[in-house]
Write a structure and sequence with these properties.
13 strands, nine-stranded mixed β-sheet, 209 residues, two-stranded antiparallel sheet
Length: 209
């Protein structure tokens, strides 16, 4: 699919298998989500621009590359996206963090907003939207809609697991927003869950079911 990158690194694929396993404990699931997020962050930021800076090593003065431009914004979709954001902050601790509170109505499967906060200058920053699951795509589309309303114009979406219908929906609604995922499943069930999937990521991260 154009605009969709599946990260095939063996470590990513191995850790995704751990998440899929229903026998993985809450503690294990939570820690592996954070680990996968760090690995995905490495992939989604591999083309960040750099510029030479002058530094002094213990031996001599040298020119070395440093990331140029303003700091990134990680925009987790609450609540499950928070654990992914923590993993990304392990790699980029200076990033800003937006918060997007959305939940999926169990009947309509549409996204309902309850909280939104982002840096005022997000129009000048790369904004990376994070959510463990991209199922129907409704929540992801609503999150990107709100970020664009707030001025964001350079956005990327990162998830652990996408369903083809959701990925297609997000690409159709926002063709300028590329997607990175650890895996792609083909189907959704009647309740909008990814099949075979890994269950409800939020419940498994926080042990609420």
């Amino acid at each position: 699919m154009d605009g969709l990158t599946i990260v095939q690194h063996p470590l990513v694929q191995h850790k995704l298998t751990i998440l899929r396993d229903r026998n993985s404990s809450t503690q294990l699931f939570r820690s592996v989500v954070r680990e996968i997020a760090t690995l995905l962050c490495y992939e989604v930021t591999r083309d960040l621009p750099t510029a030479p800076v002058t530094i002094e090593t213990p031996i001599a003065v040298a020119e070395a590359p440093a990331i140029k431009g303003k700091k990134l914004v990680f925009a987790p979709i609450l609540r499950a996206g928070l654990q992914m954001a923590e993993g990304m902050l392990d790699l980029v601790p200076s990033a800003r963090v937006a918060h997007i509170g959305l939940y999926r109505d169990p009947l309509s499967l549409e996204a309902v907003e309850y909280y939104f906060k982002t840096p005022e200058d997000c129009a000048e920053r790369l904004v990376i939207v994070v959510d463990p699951m991209l199922a129907t795509g409704h929540t992801a589309i609503a999150a990107v809609d709100r970020l664009k309303e707030a001025g964001a114009c350079d956005l990327r979406f990162v998830c652990m697991l996408a369903a083809r219908p959701g990925a297609e929906a997000l690409r159709a609604a926002h063709p300028d927003v590329p997607i990175w995922a650890a895996g792609l499943d083909e189907q959704l069930d009647d309740h909008g869950y990814i099949v075979p999937g890994l269950g409800d990521a939020g419940d498994r991260i926080y042990g609420t079911r």
